[in-house]
Every structure is written in structure tokens, then in C-alpha cells.
Amino acid sequence: MPWRIAVATLGSYGQIANGMFAFQRSLLYQVGSDVPDLARAGIEGFRAVTVKTPDKLALISWYRPAAPGMATLLVTHGNAGHIGHRVGKLAAFADEGYGLFLVGYRGFGGNPGSPSEDGLYIDGRAGLAWLDRNGVPAEQVVAYGESLGIAVAIEIASAAPVAAVVLESPYTSLADVASSYCWYMPFAASLVTDRFEARKIIGKVEAPVLLLHGKRDTIIPARQAEELFAAANEPRELQIIPQAGHMDLYEHGAAGIVKAFLAEQLKPAKGR
Domain span at residue 66? Predict the structure, then answer.
């Protein structure tokens, strides 16, 4: 009978919704069990440092000092893997003399704690504070966010006078991503608790912003990068790479785009 089919369908939707709500953090934060190995970093000068957060966690991050007069990229990564998985694409910046600080999140890569939106914000700010205590003020820091981490980078830059912001595969909010990705569930956005409202906070950022996205991204639509760009202050730049998807921007010239942007925007930092 049609009504029985309808009831069964609604019941299935209810089970899916309950499952998504109950387990969303385990679905979102794919922490894994792998621990980053500094010996395999492949870039000379990296060292592991311990960052202590205000809520008393001791998190392992990786740091490589900048050459004289060069800025340091504070990198907040995406929702899967750990800091060791990002080293390969960042080698191009190390070669230019940029410093690198890879934020180790709570719960990721063997670090203590459990990830959450507020927790990742705390971790990002703690990384910036560690740099400041060790001679790298915010004015010499580039907040570099990747995928999920773009909201962390924006949050950092909204409260500190960083030199620039780079957003790789950005989104407007995690609720918007859920609505797009789970298009068959019109209520998906309402289930999201860790919302990462990037669009709402980017207007507080006064530093130059580069947004970098792949036209073929099937996880975060390129239109969300365009909407986030529209909400950002000048100076701002949007680069949508036609051949790139979500994970392969650096296979399609992203390093050159980012380096050109930083070279233009950080001219005053040279020669400090």
C-alpha cells in the first residue's frame, strides 16, 4: 500500500537523521590513529613543539622558523588526517624562506582531547600565542586555512592583526556544506552543531585575503567560495582553478598562486 511505503520512507529518514545527529562529530572529525612522524617530514628545520592550551591540553605541533624578513604560515588543516599529511604541499613555501607552523589539533595525530568547533578555535589561537612568545608576532603571521580549517584561520585573523589570510577550499558555513552534500535531506543543515560560520566572521578580518578553490570540487561547491569572497573586505582575491577538485589544488598551480599573492601583499615585511 502507498501509505505503508510512505511510512517506511519517513521511518528510514528518521533513522538516518538520528544517526547523523548522534554521530556527527565522529563523521566530521576523522582523526584516525596514525601519529605524524617528524623523521618523514622531508623538510629540513622542522621540530616538534608543545603548545599548551588555556583548557590545559598539551598539543604537539610542528614548527620551522622563517628566514630573516619572511613571514610564517600558521596552518590549520582540514577534517581528516594530521599535520604530517600537509608537509608535501608546503615544501614550496619552505623553499622560499617562509616559516611554517602546523597546528596540531586536539584529538588528531595522537594529541589528547576531543575535537569540537570551540576546541579547534582554542587550538588555533594557542598556536598563534606560541609563535608570539617565541618571537613571531601576529604581524608576521599568515593564517592559512585548509578546508574545515578555513574557519579557524578566519577566527584567528578576526581577532589578531595577522599579515594575510589564505583560504584553501573555503566554504560559507558547515551547515551550508551539509545542505549541499546531503541534498536529499532538506533538514540536514538544522542537524549541524559545529557550524563553523565562516561567512559571518570574515567581515571582521582586515588583513588581505586570498580564496583558492577548485571548480570541480564535489565536496564544497565553488559558489560557496564566491559567496565568502563577496563577504570579505578588501584587499581580497579569488582564484577558482578550472581543473582542480577539493584535494588536488596543488597539482594545478596553487603554490604559484599563493606565493604570488604573498609576495605582493607582504612587501613591507621584506627586509625587517
Answer: 2-269
